[in-house]
């Protein structure tokens, strides 16, 4: 007879390895899975009856921006509510280290538009008890966490530290000495536990620059050079360690430019690269299908490129007080930059309207005509409640852009609109999940707080792709949500329910699992608010063997850890 800290009894175990589900027990000791099998004769300090419930590995979310939020929200919600037990922060090249004390305010401003994180929340909620990246990791380590965290080294602050903001923003090629210093700092960060590096490279000439600095200018990494990526890729090659997250669009005149760079970087580094983003578009279905073929071809040639796939159909609920995801258009970016008063004046200006009508904006939404008027604020606009902009335009004889903006302007930009996302039909979701090399997700957790709730994606994938539409098996879904991202990220002891692995476990009711209704939560520092969707159906979530969620409710147990780096397995 063996005594365990916890025994999960009689659960239907889907272990993340793609093996068929089976009813069995799991014994947990010292934060790890100590036994899987018939433990009916064994004892435990705590027993969890999982009869009729699914027991699976906790989900791994590789694309989040909780770099600020983790300091005031131990659950990294919404992720921690929806079964995520490990996240990676520092994506897209954006973050807060290394940053000199005098540059902290500018670093926070950098995140206000590109990731739509409220400045006042960062200002009040972050301790800023670091300067270097190793010191940042130590601060993350000290912070109470109910979810495990691993960190990329984001290249924007790294390049700014070495080159200075002005030269980095100007797109100057770093000198050999500067490249050497960047490589040294990256190595120092990885020695301290960073898991690799990240960058967003949405070149201004690409027409895809949808995430910009607070003043509408390109981000530092948008104007960086290929050679800098290759230099830092060689650091990972020489260490045989770490992985890369890269969001990239080449020049508009050369649509294969970005593909060539991904391939060169994969060959140079020899490490896994997460390609952002594998996303369907209704009007261009060949785009994501060709991307899938390209990724599969790269893998066949030994290039470890994986697609981060948008598998959530969470739309955007927004007002023009905050909206910035038409930034792929210079005209829209300019018109939605500045204070609310400045935005209102520009969006009301008839002289700007033609440029806004002519602009092509599709990166985030399925079309301006499809936007729904959710919450008009004045007597003049209330008649359009729950109508699409297409309905309004037809009734008023206006262009859809004028119909949209006339309502927004009449309401002082306070109208709430809902925009459907691009192209995630069941057919397209099946496409994304048909390839071996697609990771569900891109939650952007911690970012776009006032108009996006994509942190629900693990719950949504199980409900939609397994329970409702039978697109993939439950075994395949749990492999994609846990084991595959864990391997890519080098979480060598996470992602499956096998003996010796960390006891990150979700226990849920398959029939009742769901995402709750959209809510507005006034729970951010600095008096700020956000949009959320809670989860239902999670009976228990365990992180490192301790129960952090019970019956969809936080237990206040902060069992998460900083996961310092180890070589990725794939």
Q: Give the % helix.
A: 25-40%
CATH topology of the largest domain: TIM Barrel
Integer count of domains: 3
Range of strand content: 15-25%
- Number of H/I helices: 17
Q: Regarding CATH, which class of the largest domain?
A: Alpha Beta
Strand-pairing-aware structural class: alpha/beta
Ends: how far apart?
38 Å
Largest sheet report: 9 strands, mixed
Shape, principal axes of CA atoms:
globular
- Mean pLDDT, as a whole number? 96
Count every beta strand, where a strand is a DSSP E run of 2 or more residues: 25
Radius of gyration: 23 Å
Instruction: Report the CATH architecture of the largest domain.
Output: Alpha-Beta Barrel
The CATH superfamily title of the largest domain? Metal-dependent hydrolases
Query: Low-confidence parts, pLDDT < 50 over ≥5 residues?
Result: none
Task: Summarize the helices and strands and which ones pair or pack.
Layout: E1 3-13, E2 22-29, E3 32-37, E4 43-49, E5 54-57, E6 59-61, E7 84-89, H1 104-114, H2 119-125, H3 133-142, E8 148-151, E9 153-154, H4 155-163, H5 165-169, H6 176-192, E10 196-202, H7 226-239, E11 243-249, H8 257-269, E12 273-278, H9 285-300, E13 305-310, E14 316-318, H10 330-335, H11 340-348, H12 350-358, E15 372-375, H13 389-396, H14 400-410, E16 416-419, H15 426-434, E17 438-441, H16 457-468, H17 474-489, E18 505-508, E19 514-515, E20 519-521, E21 530-532, E22 535-536, E23 538-543, E24 546-550, E25 553-554
Parallel strand pairs: 1-4, 1-5, 6-7, 7-8, 9-10, 10-11, 11-12, 12-13, 13-17
Antiparallel strand pairs: 1-2, 2-3, 5-18, 14-16, 15-16, 18-23, 19-22, 20-21, 23-24, 24-25
């Amino acid at each position: 007879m063996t005594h365990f800290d916890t025994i999960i009894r009689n659960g239907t175990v889907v272990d993340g390895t793609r093996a068929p589900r089976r009813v069995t027990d799991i014994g947990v000791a010292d934060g790890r899975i100590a036994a899987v099998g018939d433990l009916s004769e064994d004892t435990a300090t705590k027993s969890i009856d999982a009869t009729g419930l699914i027991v699976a590995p906790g989900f791994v979310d590789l694309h989040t921006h909780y770099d600020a939020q983790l300091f005031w929200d131990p659950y990294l919600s919404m992720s921690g509510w929806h079964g995520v037990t490990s996240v990676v922060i520092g994506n897209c090249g954006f973050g807060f280290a290394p940053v000199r004390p005098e540059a902290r305010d500018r670093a926070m401003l950098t995140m206000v538009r590109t990731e739509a994180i409220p400045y006042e929340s960062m200002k009040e909620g972050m301790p800023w008890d670091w300067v270097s990246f190793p010191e940042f990791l130590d601060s993350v380590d000290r912070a109470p966490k109910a979810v495990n965290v691993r960190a990329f080294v984001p290249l924007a602050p790294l390049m700014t530290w070495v080159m200075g903001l002005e030269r980095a923003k100007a797109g100057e090629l770093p000198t050999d000495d500067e490249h050497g210093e960047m490589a040294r700092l990256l190595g120092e960060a990885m020695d301290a536990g960073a898991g690799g590096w990240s960058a967003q490279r949405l070149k201004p000439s690409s027409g895809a620059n949808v995430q910009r600095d607070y003043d509408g200018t390109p981000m530092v990494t948008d104007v960086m050079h290929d050679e800098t990526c290759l230099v830092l890729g060689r650091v990972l090659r020489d260490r045989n360690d770490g992985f890369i997250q890269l969001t990239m669009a080449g020049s508009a005149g050369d649509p294969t430019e970005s593909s060539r760079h991904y391939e060169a970087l994969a060959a140079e580094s020899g490490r896994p690269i997460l390609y952002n983003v594998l996303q369907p578009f209704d009007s261009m279905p060949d785009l994501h299908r060709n991307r899938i073929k390209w990724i599969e071809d790269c893998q066949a040639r030994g290039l470890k490129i994986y697609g981060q796939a948008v598998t959530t159909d969470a739309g955007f609920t927004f007002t023009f007080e905050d909206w910035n995801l038409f930034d792929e258009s210079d005209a829209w970016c300019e018109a939605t930059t500045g204070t609310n008063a400045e935005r209102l004046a520009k969006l009301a200006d008839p002289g700007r309207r033609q440029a806004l009508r002519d602009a092509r904006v599709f990166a985030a939404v399925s079309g301006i005509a499809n936007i729904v008027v959710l919450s008009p604020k004045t007597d003049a606009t209330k008649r359009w409640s729950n109508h699409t902009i297409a309905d309004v335009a037809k009734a008023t004889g206006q262009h859809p852009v004028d119909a949209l903006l006339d309502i927004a302007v009449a309401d002082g930009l306070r109208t709430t609109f809902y925009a459907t996302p691009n192209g995630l039909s069941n057919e397209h979701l099946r496409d994304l999940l048909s390839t071996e090399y697609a990771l569900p997700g891109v939650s952007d957790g911690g970012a776009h707080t006032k108009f996006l709730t994509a942190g629900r994606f693990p719950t949504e994938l199980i409900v939609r792709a397994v329970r409702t539409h039978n697109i993939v098996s439950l075994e395949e879904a749990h492999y994609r949500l846990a084991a595959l991202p864990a391997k890519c990220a080098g979480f060598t002891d996470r992602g499956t329910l096998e003996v010796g692995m960390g006891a990150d476990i979700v226990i849920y009711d398959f029939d009742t699992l769901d995402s709750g209704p959209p809510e507005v939560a006034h729970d951010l520092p600095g008096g700020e608010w956000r949009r959320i969707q809670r989860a239902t159906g999670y009976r228990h979530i365990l992180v490192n063997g301790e129960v952090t969620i019970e019956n969809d409710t936080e237990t206040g147990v902060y069992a998460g850890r900083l996961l310092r780096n180890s070589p990725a397995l794939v």
